[in-house]
Amino acid sequence: WIFYINLPVGIAGFFMASTFLFDPPYLKRGQRIDALGLGLMVLGFGSLQLLLDRGEREEWFDSNLIITLAVVGGAAVVLFLIRQLVSDEPVVDLSVFRDRNFAPGTLIVAMVMFGLFSSMLLQTLYMQKLLGYDALSAGLVLAPAGFGNMLSLLLAGRLVTRMDQRVLLGFGCVVNAIALSMMGTLNLSVDYWHLALPRLLQGVGIGFIFVPLTILTMANIPRERLGNATTLFNVVRNFGGSMGIALAATFLARRSQVHQANLVSHVNIWDPETANRLQELTRTFFLQGADPYTARNQALGTLYRSTVEQATVLAFMDDFWLLTVLFAAVIVLVPLFKRVRLTPAASPVPAGD
Predict the structure, then answer these.
(1) What is the C-alpha to C-alpha distance for residues 325 and 331, in angstroms, rounded to an integer?
(2) What angle do CA 122, 123, 127 make, to 5 degrees?
(3) Which member of 144, 251, 332, 338 has the greatest number of CB atoms within 10 A?
């Protein structure tokens, strides 16, 4: 139902858009649709999206399905790009990437969405898989991000015309890096605010990223090409989010295996501490009514589950620290932008550094 509920809303939106929205007079109307280019785009990005969605489940390139999707998707995207460069009426005009601000802007938005979507997924999995939170409790932890985002959008909207947008963008990336580094200190005894505070900070940081990033990316694009540029920007943004979810889940699984192997190698039943722990667990299960043999096996199983649990915690920490580095890397790209000067009564005018 959470998917079906969108159908009536989408239908209503379709008819409202058809009734109340009209193309501006300066917008160039194409004489025909590049059916070949459109087909290649759907095939290419559809195959890559399916690859990202099913990659971890199918063991990535150990699966013939994933190999097929990679070959078909990669070939279709390459042919699509070639088609767009030679077509008189391309589906998307790739020449906008020549703009000094648009090219780094699309790269940064992909990186930001990679970090945002993957961190949200990881924190939700952590709460429900390791801490035993139900869906409502997990949602209450994620909710403060929306509040922080609302406040920062209002503040960033006022500041973006008064100061260098690159400063605001860098500030947003720093706040996100701090929030993710806080998530990287999680353990199995954290309380609500230890989980919610980083989400609140992340929401604040995201607001300071998207407002200046959108302005910096789009300010120098001619208005008749703005629709095309916006489409490309959104495609790259969504693809970055999809990559974040897929690769974060894969990295989590791989790092869990590495940490589990490392921890198990240090657990020796002849070690005094391990032996005492097993003895305590065995006694506990025996007092609960199990026979000595069953109690011993239950104790071993509990110790193993504890080891796997700790390995998973370490894997989550690795993921969050990797995302922290990602946002730090975004800061390095910010100087690639040319500053845009905005005035309330005039269109954006590019200015030198």
Answers:
(1) 10
(2) 120
(3) 144
How many Å from the N-terminal Cα to the C-terminal Cα in the chain? 51
Q: Which residue in 233, 260, 252 sits closest to 119, CA to CA? A: 252
Q: What is the pLDDT along the chain (353 residues), one digit of tens a residue?
A: 888 889 999 999 999 998 998 877 766 665 577 788 888 888 888 888 888 777 777 777 888 888 888 898 889 889 988 887 877 777 777 778 888 888 889 999 999 999 998 998 898 888 888 888 888 888 888 888 888 888 888 888 888 888 888 899 999 999 999 999 988 888 888 888 888 899 999 999 998 998 899 888 888 888 777 777 888 888 888 888 888 888 888 888 888 888 888 887 777 666 677 777 777 777 777 677 777 777 777 777 777 778 888 888 899 999 999 999 999 999 988 888 887 776 654 445 555 54
Q: What is the pTM of this model?
A: 0.77
CA distances from 274 to 220, 261, 299 (A): 65, 17, 11
Closest by CA to 206, choosing from 167, 179, 176, is 176
Token digits of residue 279: 């003895």
Identity at 331, one-letter amino acid code: I
| Burial state string for 114-140 with b = 16 or more CB within 10 A and e = fewer than 16 | bbbbbbbbbbbbbbeebeebeeeebee
